[in-house]
Amino acid sequence: MSTTVSNGNGTDVVSLLKKNKPPALKKLASWKDENEFDGTGNTKTPRTSTTPGHENCTFHHDLELDHKPPTREALLPDMTDSYKMLLSALGENPERQGLLKTPERAAKAMLFFTKGYDQTLKDVLNDAVFDEDHDEMVVVKDIEMFSMCEHHLVPFYGKVSIGYLPKNKILGLSKLARIVEMFSRRLQVQERLTKQIAVAVTQAIQPAGVAVIIEGVHMCMVMRGVQKINSKTVTSTMLGVFRDDSKTREEFLNLVQSK
Fold it and tell me: pTM surpassing 0.85?
């Protein structure tokens, strides 16, 4: 007895998969292969930029992962093959004219969407930290943000507002936007993104306090699941005086909400 699986337009998906199966993917060495783990899932021997053989690895600067593969562009051929396999699994023919270059385009797009993994805080700041006797609040609001949900690999986007209270040092204003860009161009959840931005500003200039608010729209809620197109998610992180002093926090919130 034979079974035919169709994709709804008369195409035999099983036959299509057999006919258009892409080359087998090579097994890639992963950061898990190179690390020992204890019972809690943490690495016993975390790799750093000073570990022999890892001096040129650009991925030791992420706040959360100890080690990832070296040059990401080197993964492009395997990522392209993976997208070919995905198209075949969907019942499509990756060899038809409209899809011939789609796997490579999609792989390059994913590298761009996650280019923040290639950046460090030092790279982003580029020495734009200045000594200044200024102790009044600095606020940059409505910074556009685009990121990728790590749960569904679909976009979420919105606006970020950052405030800080200087303590003898200020940051070039564009660098706040670049910090947002660095962390948002990674696989993210909005809650973690909010905290990472606040911690990065703190590390950069050691202010008296930092406040970050993000208002985001998540396509994983709009396009799938509950499909609530008007829903927005608001997250905040308050550090230093913004957490401890209600008047300082209220001043920041008033400035952010003003038109």
Answer: no
CA distance 160 to 163: 10
* 144 in active site: no
Q: What is the pLDDT of residue 228?
A: 79
The reported pLDDT for the residue numbered 35 is 47
- Give the tokens for residue 152: 């569904």
Would you call 67 a catalytic residue per the annotation?
A: no
Active site residue 57: no
* 41-58 per-position pLDDT tens digit: 444 445 555 666 555 555
Q: Tokens representing 145? A: 């943000």
**Catalytic residue among 73, 95, 151, 257, which?**
151
In the numeric block, the tokens 């087998």 are attached to 24
Q: Which of 61, 152, 206, 215 is catalytic?
A: 152
**What distance in Å separates the CA atoms of residue 129 and residue 112, rounded to the nearest whole number?**
27
CA-to-CA dists, residue 159 to 4, 64, 180, angstroms = 48, 23, 10
